[in-house]
Amino acid sequence: MHQSLLLDKLAVPGFGRVEVVQTATSTNAELAEAVRSDPAAWPAPSALIAEHQTAGRGRAGRSWQTPPRAGLTVSVLLRPQVPAGSLGWLPLLAGLAVVRTVSDGGVTAALKWPNDVLLPAVDTVAGLGLYRKVAGILAEVVPEAPGAGNGAPAVVLGIGLNVSQTADELPVPTATSLALAGHPRPDRTDVLVRLLGEVHAVVRRWESFGGDAVAAGLLDEYTAVSATLGTRVRAELAGRAGALEGEAVGLDPSGALVVRTDSGEERAVTAGDVWHLR
Predict the structure, then answer these.
(1) CA 124-97-77 angle, 5° bins
(2) For the chain, first and last CA: distance in Å?
(3) CB atoms within 10 A of CB 184
(4) What global pTM score does this model have?
């Protein structure tokens, strides 16, 4: 039986508020609405966690569900003190924070660009190769009234992490959980506290360098845990803009994926789905 979070252990240094609800449609949607209604009640960073999420939202409008108390569905309110042009890095840095969290439990995680967190598998599946997805991330800017939040944009960062699911509780065969991957102690409360701490740490470091992920060394750290770089990929571009294939050769300073096509042309992919071909 999946265990509830231990509320008395959820004091996270640096966080103004950590709220747990039993059920939410989407923690991102509900936190965004709460921030619009009463910004002062949600100092950055704050977090909303649901023991059961009934209508979770992923990238490109996808929906997903997970059994109650089996994973972590958490949304973090941030007001990054960085130039607006740097905000595209936030989902990538959140992915890096999840990798650090998982690695604390002795499991080797990797990132599929931009921010899917993967764990090794014993057999291959289309699009992921020898990996399975354990976490996904969705970042959304929250429109607010002029003057709210001292001018810094409010961003809700949603993270869904599979913790104790069994194989038959996973939504798709390309997914996994920390328990299935052999994490030695996948306690949801411990994982949540580590996760929030890692998000806070990486964002503060990014802010201290004015949103420059390269100068902060975060580009190098992301590259070191990327399962995408050096792989032949197919990028299905956002907005039905077509697709391209080639080798993923790096990230540019904005966090875009650089793909070298068979003709030798290098193109930056800023948004869309990327599939590993080999």
Answers:
(1) 120
(2) 38
(3) 9
(4) 0.91
Classify 50 as helix, strand or coil: strand
- Kindly state the tokens that stand for 76: 């973090």
**How far is the C-alpha of 216 from the C-alpha of 206, rounded, in Å?**
6
What integer pLDDT is reported at residue 60 of this predicted model? 47
Helix (H) or strand (E) holding 31: helix 27-37
Residue from 113, 94, 104, 100 nearest 160 by CA: 94
CA 119 to CA 51: how far, in whole Å? 23
Contacts of 16 (CB under 8 A, 6+ apart): 42, 43, 44, 45, 46
**Rg (alpha carbons) of the chain, rounded to whole number:** 18
User: Which strands form 71-78's sheet, in the order they lie side by side?
Assistant: 17-24, 46-53, 71-78, 154-162, 129-142, 116-125, 110-112
Which is it for strands 46-53 and 71-78: parallel, antiparallel or unpaired?
antiparallel
pLDDT, mean of each 10-residue run, the chain (278 residues)? 82 94 94 94 96 71 69 96 92 96 82 94 87 94 70 90 91 90 84 96 97 96 96 86 91 94 93 86
User: Which domains, ranges and CATH numbers included, belong to the chain?
Assistant: 7-224 (3.30.930.10), 232-276 (2.30.30.100)
- Which residue do the tokens 């089996």 mark? 70
Measuring CA to CA, which residue among 82, 65, 52 is closest to residue 151?
82
List CB contacts of 147: < 8 A, sequence separation 6 or more.
Answer: none
| Cα distances (angstroms) measured from residue 272 to each of 22, 72, 212, 275, 278 | 33, 25, 23, 10, 19
Q: How far is CA 59 from the centre of its chain?
A: 11
